[in-house]
Amino acid sequence: MVPSAPGGRARIPAYCLPSAEPARSLNRPVTAASQTETPPQQLPIYHLRVPTTQTSGLGATPWAFRPDELTALTAFYRHHGFAVLSGAVEGATADALSEECSSAQRRLADGRLDARYGTDRFNEEKGRPPTGQPNYVQHITELSPTARHLLHSPPVAELVRGWLGPGCWSAEDSDSGFVYQDARPGPDSGYRRIGWHSDWQSAPHLDLWPATAVTVHLDATSPDNGFLRVVPGSHLWATPAPYENVNGAVVPAGSRPTGGHTAAAPPAPMPLRFEKVPGEVALYAERGDVLFHDCYLWHSAAVATSSAARRRHIRGSWFGGRKPVRWENEDFVKNAAR
Q: What predicted TM-score, i.e. pTM, was given to this entire model?
């Protein structure tokens, strides 16, 4: 059971890393005592509570922050493992970004781009490309000047360097680079959803970590077109390498047994597919939002409920660990269910 406070009311555990300022909380205010709490032995139930004094104008979305709220965004990110920079891409810039990505997707589908820009390794079934437009365009920053400028300019680069250190490096020159993703339902699509995982589990044998993933949303997300599911605070758990997975993926020899910001074991095993996790939240984004999430955060993506819906975004990662001399396709452990 969750421990009770005086009066019989459940006390909701707080997960946080020490920071200069209290984080905007999903459960209760951060205090000196809560920063030293021993993580409980079961998944927490997060009660979303937005203070009545909140002035951001973003309604009941405690993880969304304006460009002038970067200090608060950082505190929230360290506390919960994710945060959203709201409205980072707007107006003509958002239109240009969308058009440049769509153009690259069309050119790849028509055979007017080199094969290195396409891939099927992230698809539900490797070797079965979609019959319609491709779900992925690799190295999108080579094809979209707007994407490259956005992902390497303040405040995105500024935030990432603050979390990972000035020597952090991006995956832009890796085998896939930064990737444009078009998630959609239907038989013509090779990618619709993804099961529970943490990014670290995709390469537990490499010394890349820690890392931050950056997602630029080209469409608002909802149950209509799919959305991200996250477990706040799970980046602090020592999550096991994915020796057990539904895809038969092999974890390479020499892999770290666990990955997380503390040595505390997860209070329950990570589900292998799309099951409900106690304490998870639905993370809806607006067009132009930039999502940051920690490499150890448990997350999953829900499938769209509308056959005509699309969920498009650009995804890239920055790393604080050792940069590989060569990064091969074989280094990718495809453990998450599709």
A: 0.82
